[in-house]
Amino acid sequence: MVMTSRPVTPRRGLSAAELAVTRHLLVHGPATRQDLGDRLNLSYASTSRLARALVDGGMASEALEPEQAVGRPRQVLTAVPGARHVVGCKLTADTAYAVVCDMFGDVQGTARAALPRPGPEGGVPVAATVKVVAQLTARLARRVPSLDGIGVALGGVIDASSTVQEGTFLGWRDVDLATPLQERTGLPVIVTNDVTALAREQLWFGAGRTHSTFGVVTVGAGLGFGVVREGLAVDRLIDNGHLLAHSPIDAGGPPCGLGHAGCASAYLDHDDVARHAPATIPRPITFGALAEAGRAGDSRAGRLLDDAARALGHVVATMAGALQTRCVVLAGEDVAALTESPAMSEVIAERLRPGPNEVQRCALEIVTTPLTFTDWARGAAVAGIQHVLGGV
Q1: Coil, strand or helix at 260
Q2: Is 373 helix (H, G, I), strand (E, B) or coil?
Q3: pLDDT of 273-330, one tens digit each?
Q4: Once rounded to an integer, what is the mean pLDDT over residues 248-257?
Q5: What kind of architecture, by CATH, is found in domain 16-81?
Q6: Cα gap 3→140, rounded to integer Å
Q7: pLDDT grade for 68, boundaries at 50, 70 and 90
Q8: 247 and 263 in contact (C-beta within 8 Å)?
Q9: Are the C-beta atoms of residues 202 and 329 closer than 8 Å to each other?
């Protein structure tokens, strides 16, 4: 074990009712017992019992609200941020980015370390990766009074919150990452797709505060997709987003790496875009660089950016229609340049335009969230928080 000498005793998860109350306090803020009962359809006796249990367990505090002119002051329940602390770690092809967060997802410390180079068979060594994550966890554990779990996020297909069935950037197939990391640290571990982790973070601390169903689209090294339906994050997509990434945009457009003419990936995947970008644009290609070149007078770079923005507009509209949601979250290191192009909003407006005999109107809320690797790691931490509290 590489943790500090402090003994690690995993705390029990919350009951379903305790989790519901805690989640409400985290997402919506302090509330009276009566408000909680009304929102969660609980009797006053049940709410009082749950409040006592959460206060006794250190999960919440309760105090009288300021005295009012009319009526007696009421007890207000508030979640305690430091009741739980979790490390979140985002794995890229060559680096582990880690944060430690409190129960509100607020970052208390950050750390990063290089991952070992790929071995002879092309994959990043698993045991060495576990060691790196455990060392980062031990380093961050010193920043908080106690540590309750670890969330690890990476690009790929994850099974049972533990096994990386497909980790393209790391060269992994059917790798159980959670078990050796849990054995090494003594902490509960959840492994999740990185976009799913962002969807979980948005569910509690972002779009989920006002929308029970929404989609998440990330634009970075490739296209990523996450789904929240009726307040539950979908842990595994049936196709890892393949159908949306390769949905047709323009049959006369450029081919993607799989040979599809003018699909969304052909316009939005960095490797595909790089094949068509001017040699004057620095590699690796970013949409921010294309936007800058376009503003400087490079018409070809400007067209590539606008084409990508149109493709993203079609993806957003298609995802919203498929999920029947009015909210889509756009996230990623490179998303700002695309959303600033008028081409994206023009496509969405055109897609939303009703026919002459249609009476129903729809408006989409597009939430834009530029990301750093610290933000990706925070998503992993929030997934870890939800895991140690009892899951969602």
Answers
A1: coil
A2: helix
A3: 998 888 888 888 899 999 999 999 999 999 999 999 999 999 999 999 999 999 999 9
A4: 95
A5: Orthogonal Bundle (1.10)
A6: 10
A7: low
A8: yes
A9: yes
Q: Which tokens is 13 given?
A: 């998860």
Rounded Cα distance, 183 and 287, in Å: 42
If DSSP codes are grouped into helix, strand and coil, which group holds residue 75?
strand
Q: Which amino acid is at 243?
A: L
Spans of all domains in the chain? 16-81, 83-201+374-389, 212-325+334-370
Tell me, what's the pLDDT at 1? Answer: 44
Give the span between the Cα atoms of 149 and 192, in whole angstroms.
Answer: 14
CA distance linking residue 185 with residue 199, whole number of Å = 26
Ranges 51-60, 68-77, 89-98, 129-138: which has the least confidence: 68-77
Domain 83-201+374-389 and domain 212-325+334-370 have a common topology: yes
Residue linked to tokens 């078990």:
179
Strand runs (DSSP E) across 51-155, as ranges?
60-64, 75-79, 86-91, 95-101, 107-114, 149-154
Look up the CATH superfamily of 212-325+334-370. Answer: ATPase, nucleotide binding domain (3.30.420.40)
DSSP string, 275-292: HHS-TTSPSSP-HHHHHH
* CA separation, residue 241 to residues 193, 195, 209, 377 (Å): 12, 10, 24, 21
Its CATH class, for the domain covering 83-201+374-389, is alpha beta
Q: What is the pTM of this model?
A: 0.92
